[in-house]
Design brief:
There is one protein chain. This protein is an alpha/beta fold. It has helices at 2-17, 36-51, 65-76, 102-114, 136-146, 157-169, 176-181, 202-211, 220-225, 232-243, 271-278, 288-308, 317-320, and strands at residues 26-31, 58-62, 84-87, 120-123, 128-130, 152-155, 187-188, 196-198, 251-256, 312-313, 331-333. It contains 13 helices and eleven strands. Strand 2, helix 3 and strand 3 (84-87) form a beta-alpha-beta unit.
Length: 353
């Protein structure tokens, strides 16, 4: 049943990357659309992947041959190695207008395509950087065993509304186990660690998604497809709680905008605000107050990273590791919300919230 739902998408995508699926146990999938800002960030991501010999772990999910040529040409600036590119034929995204949940559906395509070739798959966005070379299987297996990607913290009402809405979309709004584990949807695990999927759970996950209906009488998959707030890893988290008895994943009563790792700093305010108030010029090395403030904030961030046991961070690690080194960190994410990484001397940027 599952393969029929994805049939036309899979046959083309698999043809493009079949030769690349050899002797690997873990990988990243990255949906990508050509846009000015994303073009910049994906180049930084690819550059870091080449620098730390991680390019072969990345599988980009794209829409057309134009994007295929764009990413191939960009990668050639840094290496002769070819990037892993999966073309997903145009689906019916346009039917749902601005509510179309395109990134999540692309990730589901990628997960379904690659699940038989990898033990673990992480679904991430292009605004990331590698901080070092690492064994993806070893790290993903640790994340899965320690449940660090499911570490929970109290979330503000903004996220609570999202979580409750997802529960309706997937027909679990009254599930007692889910309500208990999330404390009535007041806990969030959003990006507390690299979002890793275990491949041997995915057949059952997709079977549930395609063959069950929510309370509105619509299949769960269709509800997800037309509701942009049904983010892929939250849907997976809910399913694991209900159908795989995921529990005791670690939690803190600390309140955060989204997650501890996405929003770290003094008083757990938005990280981009904290960085902005420090200084508009980090190159002002004589500013002792800046050094004190930076050390205070980054050491708080480090304590949060260690509490969760995360392997990635939202802080500009290259600029802050002097004050808070963390050997566990493998990646940086949300680089679009931090100062311009192509010029670390400036801090002129606008908030994104």
């Amino acid at each position: 049943m599952l393969l029929y739902n994805f049939a036309t998408q899979i046959c083309v995508a698999f043809y493009l990357c079949n030769s690349l699926l050899m002797n690997k146990k873990a990988c990243f999938i990255v949906p990508f659309v050509m846009r000015e800002k994303d073009n910049k960030y994906v180049e930084l991501f690819i550059k870091s992947a080449v620098e730390y010999d991680m390019l072969d772990t990345l599988y980009f999910l794209i829409d057309n041959t134009e994007t295929f040529e764009f990413l191939t040409t960009m990668t050639e600036k840094y290496t002769s190695q070819k990037p892993n590119l999966i073309i997903i034929p145009n689906a019916d995204y346009h039917l749902f207008g601005n509510r179309a949940n395109i990134p999540t559906i692309k990730k589901f395509y990628g997960l379904n395509l690659l699940k038989d070739n990898f033990d673990y798959i992480a679904a991430i966005d292009c605004e990331c950087l590698f901080l070092k070379h690492f064994d993806t299987y070893e790290i993903f297996d640790e994340i899965w065993r320690t449940k660090s990607s499911f570490f929970r913290n109290r979330c503000r009402s903004h996220n609570e509304i999202f979580l409750r809405n997802i529960s309706y979309c997937i027909g679990l709004e009254n599930n007692e186990k889910l309500i208990k584990e999330t404390d009535d949807f007041s806990y969030s695990n959003w990006f507390n660690d690299i979002p890793v999927y275990k491949s041997d759970t995915l057949d059952d996950f997709f079977d549930w998604m395609f063959n069950n209906k929510a309370s509105n009488g619509t299949t769960i998959y269709k509800n997800i497809k037309q509701n942009f707030c049904c983010f892929d890893y939250w849907v997976y988290w809910f399913w694991l709680i209900v159908y795989r008895d995921l529990h005791d994943t670690g939690c803190t009563e600390t309140m955060s905008f989204n997650s501890l790792i996405e929003s770290v700093g003094d008083s757990f305010l938005d990280i981009q605000y904290l960085y902005k108030v420090l200084s508009k010029n980090r190159s002002d090395t004589n500013n002792e107050l800046l050094k004190i403030q930076t050390r205070k904030i980054t050491q708080k961030e480090l304590s949060i990273e260690l509490l969760v046991g995360t392997h990635w961070t939202t802080r500009d690690y290259e600029s802050t590791k002097e004050f808070a080194p963390n050997d566990r960190l493998c990646m940086q994410f949300h680089v679009d919300r931090l100062p311009e990484l192509t010029d670390r001397s400036t801090f002129n940027y606008e908030l994104h919230w």
